[in-house]
Structures are given as C-alpha cells and as structure tokens.
Amino acid sequence: MWEALSRLYLDSDSRDDDDDDDSIAHVLATSPCTLEQLRTMLLHEVHPVLIGNLRSAAGVWDGFDPDWLAATIQARCARRWCWPARWYWRSDARAQWALLAPKISALRATATY
Q1: Which of the ends of the chain has fewer CB neighbours closer than 10 A, N or C?
Q2: Category of 63 on φ-ψ map: left (φ > 0), alpha (ψ -120 to 50) or beta
Q3: Which domain holds residue 79?
Q4: What proportion of the chain, given as a percentage, has pLDDT over 70?
Q5: What is the mean pLDDT of residues 46-72?
Q6: Number of structural domains the chain divides into
Q7: Whole-angstrom Cα distance, residue 42 to residue 90?
Q8: CA distance 11 to 30
Q9: DUF7079 domain: from which residue to which, for each copy (predicted)?
C-alpha cells in the first residue's frame, strides 16, 4: 500500500490524471486495511517521507524504489520522536485523501474490483 500511496508524490504530469487516482484507489480498495488505517499510512508514514519530492526542483517522476520506500518509512516509524516540520504541509495529503477515500469506499461497496 505504501507503493500505491507513493504515486501521489511523483513529480509528473500524471498527478493531474484521474485514471492514476482510480488506479491507486483500486489497489487500496483491495487491501484489508480500514479507511482510517489507510489515511494514517498516508498522513503519518508516506507523506512525511515523500513530501520533499514535490518540493524538489528535480523530483522523482518514474516511481520510488519499493525497498528504499519500505526501509525509509520503517526507520522513520521506529524513531521515538519525529521532527514536526513537515506537519505544515499535510494539507496536500488531506486534499488527496479527500479525493481517494470516496473512490475506495465506492469500490468496496460494489466489490467489483
């Protein structure tokens, strides 16, 4: 799920593509996680690690290495205290979640994924 959520942070024109959001929602809808668990993953695990990519002049655009992503998120979660500086930018993640959550719910309700 981290890999699917990480696609929200790619520095590419596809971020404006509803098809990509639908694809991400499809992956998340098939997961066993609740909506609240998925939201927590986005806001507290993926977002703090990857928001810098969207702020970079030359960010990653073709996908994050899954092993690097998992290791970085796990290392950050293992720390007892995390620097809150990137909390300021969570409005980006909240806006993305506001678009994804209804799509995930709709897919789960119809169970045609």
Answers
A1: C
A2: left
A3: 2-110
A4: 84
A5: 89
A6: 1
A7: 10
A8: 26
A9: 2-95
Secondary structure (3-state) at 33: coil
Q: What distance in Å separates the CA atoms of residue 13 and residue 72, rounded to the nearest whole number?
A: 25
Q: What is the mean pLDDT of the chain?
A: 86
Residue with tokens 């506001």, as numbered in its chain: 98
Residue corresponding to tokens 């098809």: 19
Type of residue numbered 63:
G
DSSP 79: S
The stretches of 1-113 forming alpha helices (DSSP H) are 2-6, 18-29, 35-40, 47-55, 66-78, 90-110
Let me know: does 35 contact 105? Beta carbons within 8 Å: yes
The number of residues making up the chain comes to 113
